[in-house]
Amino acid sequence: MKLKHLFFLFILFSHPLFAEDTLPITSSGTIKRLQLNSKFIGTRTVDVWLPESYSTDKKYSVLYMQDGQMLFDSSNTWNKLEWGVDETLTSLINQNKIQTCIVVGIWNAGKRRRTEYFPAIPFDILSPKEKALITFPDSAYDSQRIEVSGPQSENYLKFLVDELKPYIDSNFSTYSDRQHTCIAGASMGGLISLYAICEYPSIFGAAACISTHWPGVNIGDLNPVPNAILRYLKIHLPSPQTHRIYYDYGSLTRDAEYKPFQLIADQLMIKKGYTNLNWTTKEFIGDSHSEKSWSKRLAIPMEFLLKKKNQ
Fold this sequence. Notes:
Layout: H1 3-13, E1 30-38, E2 42-50, E3 61-65, H2 85-94, E4 101-106, H3 113-117, H4 120-124, H5 128-134, E5 135-136, E6 146-147, H6 153-171, E7 181-186, H7 188-199, E8 206-210, H8 225-236, E9 244-250, H9 259-272, E10 279-284, H10 291-296, H11 299-306
Parallel strand pairs: 3-4, 3-7, 5-6, 7-8, 8-9, 9-10
Antiparallel strand pairs: 1-2, 2-4
Helix pairs in contact: 8-9
């Protein structure tokens, strides 16, 4: 094991796990909670879900998911909603529809969530005037914009790739290769998942970008962000020979804004060489921008990400 990984493990275990009674209650499987002290993003909670059949005698694919505190137990979430990840994956595993996997749920950064999930390179190509439009000063928090210091997505992804993934692969029975490593999220979580597979194509082999929040910030019609993200995507999409990408969106609430941007993204996928063998975009009429809708259709992106080779 590399020296930096040994150092990281020492830092990890110098911080205690959360109390057992705060763990999410799941319908199946087991949650292992980690509280990590990262040199890139500070202290962060990670919930690792292991299926009922988990055994060190076999290896598992790994699904990294954003907004980890929203995945398993609605009694502990801010809006009393959840994704129902344990129920959906258990059902799919029992039906032999997907590879057996573990889920690594990374908690978001609370008030800094948008800043941490906002892609850094698209931000960098904005003009100073455009940057000023989408940021807020340190003295005046604005949940609809990002911090004036700029995105922290580069540090967040370094945490995932340089610290978290080596720890997961060293301490759980996993396949560590790209082919068995997926990433997923919704809204800003979908945006950072797309950015992750573009920035680290050797690490992540598939991404589910659910209700991708193309606007990045919520400032109305003068928003320069979607165009910057699409310009970035045109250049940085990973190879369709080795990667798979899933997108979707609903038709209600905030999701109603996404279709025009998604249609442009779809054209970029086609120009890159993606086909229905390695890419899909789905529209869900009547679905809103909410955990309720994401939970209802979660089996679809999960089958896309984790489909068995012989199917």
